[in-house]
């Protein structure tokens, strides 16, 4: 503690002794009685000693209160110090505490959001697992049904992992030449089980070679196709029209309420169809919009109840 005190106040003692030597030199040069200097020096030294005791006690108390504040975060411990410099430090500390409190609150909200998200996705992924488990227990394993449930589980896990990755800004974009038609064909082959189950026909017309991220584009198209399959009618149709600078995906599904369309890209929004069919998480289109923005593409949705939905993806102007 003494070393710390000396580091803070040592310069003043240095000035005092410098002035004392200066006065001694003056007395010597002018041949003044040394006894006068000696009396004055002893008096000032005694006064300096008493002042030092007082300031050291204040310094010790201040260090102790600051140490207490660091570990207990009790602001009252430092409010009694009212020097101008202390006021400035206290203002900084108050601001830092507020920012820290705000950051903790934000972190807790984000943590709760992730917990709710994981719970929701876990509940959704339990459905295909339960279906496979039931088939196994009843010894009625249907190859196509197992394949469908496994594909649904794979898609849900991929969606969850991509959402976490994207929301934490860990999305690794790699731009290269890719053909839109090929991406759709690969996705249709992958999801053919779902197309066959609902007896859906699909048509792809045109092509577009674009420089973009193949992985994230494929994820975007998979979300849109997933919705087109999910909310389509049995025996319905999906038409994909591709041309330079524009992609149109049409379905003959149940459509979307007019009042829900403006909110489709909000995080967590499911709308009437999502609540009614209990199949939506509300994160698919939110991620689609964010990813397309990063890829300098725009998305619009047009829909009519019982007539179907159109999803339009275009290059940003």
From TrEMBL:
Pfam families: HATPase_c. GO terms for molecular function: phosphoprotein phosphatase activity; phosphorelay sensor kinase activity. The keyword Cell membrane applies. The keyword Transferase applies. Its EC number is 2.7.13.3. Residues 136-163 form a coiled coil. It is found in: Cell membrane. One of its GO terms (cellular component) is plasma membrane. It comes from the Bacteria. It is a multi-pass membrane protein. SMART domains: HATPase_c. It catalyses: ATP + protein L-histidine = ADP + protein N-phospho-L-histidine. The chain crosses the membrane at residues 12-30, 36-57. GO terms for biological process: cellular response to phosphate starvation. Keywords: Cell membrane, Coiled coil, Kinase, Membrane, Transferase, Transmembrane, Transmembrane helix, Two-component regulatory system. InterPro entries: BphY/WalK/GraS-like, HATPase_C_sf, HATPase_dom, His_kinase_dom, HisK_dim/P_dom. Residues 120-317 form the Histidine kinase domain. PANTHER family: HISTIDINE KINASE (PTHR45453:SF2), PHOSPHATE REGULON SENSOR PROTEIN PHOR (PTHR45453). This is histidine kinase.
């Amino acid at each position: 503690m003494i070393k710390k005190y000396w580091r803070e106040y040592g310069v003043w003692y240095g000035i005092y002794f410098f002035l004392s030597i200066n006065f001694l030199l003056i007395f010597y040069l002018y041949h003044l009685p040394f006894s006068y200097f000696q009396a004055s020096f002893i008096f000032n030294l005694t006064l300096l000693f008493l002042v030092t005791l007082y300031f050291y006690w204040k310094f010790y108390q201040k260090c102790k209160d600051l140490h207490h504040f660091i570990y207990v975060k009790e602001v009252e411990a430092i409010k009694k110090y009212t020097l101008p410099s202390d006021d400035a430090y206290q203002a900084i500390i108050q601001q830092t505490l507020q920012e820290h409190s705000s950051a903790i609150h934000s972190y807790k909200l984000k943590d709760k959001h992730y917990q709710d998200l994981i719970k929701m996705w876990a509940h959704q992924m339990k459905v295909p697992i339960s279906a496979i488990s039931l088939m196994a227990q009843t010894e009625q394993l249907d190859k196509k049904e197992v394949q469908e449930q496994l594909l649904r589980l794979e898609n849900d896990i991929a969606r969850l992992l991509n959402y976490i990755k994207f929301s934490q800004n860990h999305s690794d974009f790699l731009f290269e030449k890719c053909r839109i038609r090929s991406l759709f064909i690969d996705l249709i082959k992958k999801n053919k089980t779902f197309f066959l189950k609902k007896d859906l026909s699909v048509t792809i017309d045109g092509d577009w070679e674009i420089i973009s991220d193949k992985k994230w584009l494929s994820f975007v198209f998979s979300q849109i196709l997933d919705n087109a399959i999910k909310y389509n009618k049995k025996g319905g149709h999906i038409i994909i029209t591709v041309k330079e600078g524009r992609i149109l995906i049409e379905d003959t599904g149940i459509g979307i309420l007019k009042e829900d369309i403006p909110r489709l890209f909000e995080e967590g929004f499911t709308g009437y169809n999502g609540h009614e069919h209990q199949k939506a998480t509300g994160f698919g289109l939110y991620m689609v919009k964010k990813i397309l923005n990063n890829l300098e593409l725009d998305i619009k949705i047009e829909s009519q109840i019982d007539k179907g939905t159109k999803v339009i993806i275009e290059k940003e102007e």
